[in-house]
């Protein structure tokens, strides 16, 4: 029996303002600055997660890097995987 093969998606973003509305300010997917997902604009985190789930991606990690000392930016790093069919 062959082992399951996976593909991975790496996402980095920060929120507009304090993040109360979950609106995305900067969005990088696999190291590329983008405005949306799969041709769809995804201005909020719930919309982005819904789009990823619809495309079969499963979240495996979420890390927050808060750098208030040097630039006041908080980045969120998400990693997703899905089986290679």
Give an overview in words.
The two termini are 15 Å apart. The protein has one helix and seven strands, in the order βββββαββ. It is mostly beta strands. The protein is globular, with a radius of gyration of 14 Å. The strands form two sheets. Strands 3-2-1-7-6 form a five-stranded antiparallel beta sheet, covered by helices on one side. Strands 4-5 form a two-stranded antiparallel sheet. It is 12% helix and 51% strand. It has one domain (6-83): 2-Layer Sandwich (Gtp Cyclohydrolase I Feedback Regulatory Protein, Chain: K), CATH 3.30.1410.
Topology:
Elements lengths: L5 E10 L8 E6 L2 E2 L2 E2 L2 E2 L3 H10 L3 E10 L5 E11 L2
Antiparallel strand pairs: 1-2, 1-7, 2-3, 4-5, 6-7
Supply the key terms:
single chain; Gtp Cyclohydrolase I Feedback Regulatory Protein, Chain: K; 1 helix; 85 residues; mainly beta; 12% helix
| Terminal Cα span | 15 Å
Relative helix content: 10-25%
* CATH-derived architecture: 2-Layer Sandwich
How many domains comprise the coordinates? 1
Characterize this entry briefly.
The chain is mainly beta. The chain has one helix spanning 45-54, and strands spanning 6-15, 24-29, 32-33, 36-37, 40-41, 58-67, 73-83.
